[in-house]
Amino acid sequence: MPERATVPRGRHAPPLEVRLSVQRGRLFEAAATVFASAGYAEASAEAIARAAGMSKATFYEHFANKEECLLALFDAAATEVLRAMSEAAGAAGDDPRERLRAGTMAFLDMVATHPEESQTLLVEVIGAGERGAERRDSVLAAFAAVVDAENAAASRRGALPRFESPDDAFAVVGAVVELASRHIRLGVPADVRELEPLIERLMLGLLSRDGEG
């Protein structure tokens, strides 16, 4: 892990918005660790603040409670995953299969290299009740919209068949999320990146027409 960011004090102290941004980043890092190790139900604002090397009062300057912290961490992690997938697909060029592989690997790499944040994103957010479920559903819908848009663009170029419906894209995303969640919870497979060929088969299977891949 990189060294924890700190800010100078006194007359050399940075502007308030910089200090708050650094604090928030440290709290996110600590929250991911606490949620992953203790689970959402057992986590507390005090434990998160302690893990971040801050006071509980500082925690409450940023978040009303642990639920707000979890949801904010979820939003930040989801945004970063979508950004990484989009950049990877864009760098892969126009070939739809290469874009699929690149986007999939970007997602799996994020899960592999940020396991605690991934556990928050895929598993622990469910513990936040109705708001957590709504947030998770909205992100799954956003992932599915990206997949559907990729398919639509490839279909317009004649590179791939079009999905039968937007539910096809959601089915792929749901399967991918469940596979990644199983890895996080059970360690199956040992390296989450081993799922890439399976995900590709799922996607291309939905696109097959009369046995054509």
What would you say about this model in short?
With 213 residues, this protein is mainly alpha-helical.
Report what the structure shows.
The protein contains 9 helices and no strands. The protein is elongated and about 60 Å long. Helix 1 (16-38) crosses helix 2 (45-52), helix 4 runs antiparallel to helix 5 (96-113) and helix 8 runs antiparallel to helix 9. It folds into 2 domains: 10-62, Arc Repressor Mutant, subunit A (Orthogonal Bundle), CATH 1.10.10; 66-207, Tetracycline Repressor, domain 2 (Orthogonal Bundle). It has helices spanning 16-38, 45-52, 56-62, 66-91, 96-113, 115-122, 129-156, 166-186, 196-207. Mean pLDDT is 90; it is low at 1-5.
Which characteristics define this entry?
213 residues, mainly alpha, Arc Repressor Mutant, subunit A, Tetracycline Repressor, domain 2, 2 domains, disordered N terminus
Number of strands: 0
Structural class: mainly alpha
The overall pLDDT, averaged over residues, is 90
CATH homologous superfamily title of the largest domain: Tetracycline Repressor, domain 2
Detail the poorly predicted runs.
1-5
Q: Which CATH architecture of the largest domain?
A: Orthogonal Bundle
How many distinct helices?
9
Q: What value does the Rg take, in angstroms?
A: 20 Å
Q: Helix proportion of residues, in percent?
A: over 70%
> Can you tell me the number of structural domains?
2
Distance between the termini: 42 Å
Strand content: under 5%
Approximate shape: elongated
Order of helices and strands: HHHHHHHHH
For the biggest sheet, the summary is:
none
Fold-level CATH name of the largest domain: Tetracycline Repressor, domain 2
CATH classification, class level of the largest domain: Mainly Alpha
